[in-house]
Amino acid sequence: MVGVTDDENEVILQNTYAGSVQAVFRKGQPYGMIKGTTAARDDKGNFLINPNTGLLIEDPTPKLLGNPAPDFILGFTNSFSYKGFTLSAVLGYQHGGKIYSSTTSLQLGRGVTEDTENRDHPVVCL
User: Which helix (H) or strand (E) holds 93?
Assistant: First the structure.
């Protein structure tokens, strides 16, 4: 789904299932930048925490989170043949690039990851 945002210099390329993260094209930025919500911070860069819940306060203004394009990609392919049998192998490597995992987001929301073991007790880690 492609759409134009209020900012005329940005086009939404794709929304995620939850709608909190988008792939966007913004003038002057690489194609497909990841845009989404972040935690609010004070003037010193410290996270703002809701005193009633102990949870982070969400910044109301979505920000660019990263570029999904890798810095470089390497690949290697080789084949060996012996007496009519052939064995082929492919090795690939990608360095850099940011990702957003909808699967992990959904698992966290359902409390099925190790990160959510103690979810009944709000805590602030410093």
Answer: strand 85-95
